[in-house]
Amino acid sequence: MESKPRGTGAVAAGRVYEEFEPKMEWDRQLGVDTLRVLLPGFEKEQIKVQVSSSRVLRISGERQLSDNRWSCFLKEIPLSSNYNHKEISARYEKGILYVKHPKLIVPDDAELQENEQPPVESSTLDGKPPQEKAQQPTRMDKDKAAKGLVSGAQKLNMESYRKDFSGLVMDMTKPRKLVNLVLFFLSVVVLGMYARKAISWSFKKSEN
């Protein structure tokens, strides 16, 4: 974050100010970030912490080194938008200034646990979990499969036998129909010849 220190060697009311550059470090936590500012030699009353309406954290301080020599520092740090600037607090302890920055949006522990959980295996449409490994066929299954193949072959043989038998019957009935047809024509011819003879005989009898 940016900071704006004072210029060094400033003189005010007979005082000579020496600019002090404090060391700063952040402690990032789930719901709050803490800025630690190392200020060795400073007292609590010599430090000021302010937050402006423009969301700028201002930390300043000065202490006397000798008769007219003073050490001073000034840090202006823009606040991130995810911090609640109205709840920022500070405490000074053993030469370290702790400035807490509460966060506006804090993820719940439950949400963090859900994000850390491994993905659950997808279930089938009927709600049953998928089997990890395909089951090996047992001896009984093999016997059933073999019997199914045998019965299937027997059915195919029976079907082919029925077709062959029906074809043989058809072949046997064809000559019989042909013989009947020939006999029918022969009977018609014989009857025709007999009728012709009968007619000619009746004409001869009438002439006599």
UniProtKB/TrEMBL annotation:
<feature type="domain" description="SHSP">
    <location>
        <begin position="15"/>
        <end position="123"/>
    </location>
</feature>
<keyword id="KW-0472">Membrane</keyword>
<dbReference type="GO" id="GO:0006952">
    <property type="term" value="P:defense response"/>
</dbReference>
<protein>
    <recommendedName>
        <fullName>SHSP domain-containing protein</fullName>
    </recommendedName>
</protein>
<dbReference type="GO" id="GO:0005886">
    <property type="term" value="C:plasma membrane"/>
</dbReference>
<keyword id="KW-0812">Transmembrane</keyword>
<keyword id="KW-1003">Cell membrane</keyword>
<feature type="transmembrane region" description="Helical">
    <location>
        <begin position="178"/>
        <end position="195"/>
    </location>
</feature>
<dbReference type="InterPro" id="IPR002068">
    <property type="entry name" value="A-crystallin/Hsp20_dom"/>
</dbReference>
<keyword id="KW-0611">Plant defense</keyword>
<keyword id="KW-1133">Transmembrane helix</keyword>
<dbReference type="InterPro" id="IPR008978">
    <property type="entry name" value="HSP20-like_chaperone"/>
</dbReference>
<feature type="region of interest" description="Disordered">
    <location>
        <begin position="110"/>
        <end position="146"/>
    </location>
</feature>
<dbReference type="GO" id="GO:0034605">
    <property type="term" value="P:cellular response to heat"/>
</dbReference>
<comment type="similarity">
    <text>Belongs to the small heat shock protein (HSP20) family.</text>
</comment>
<dbReference type="Pfam" id="PF00011">
    <property type="entry name" value="HSP20"/>
</dbReference>
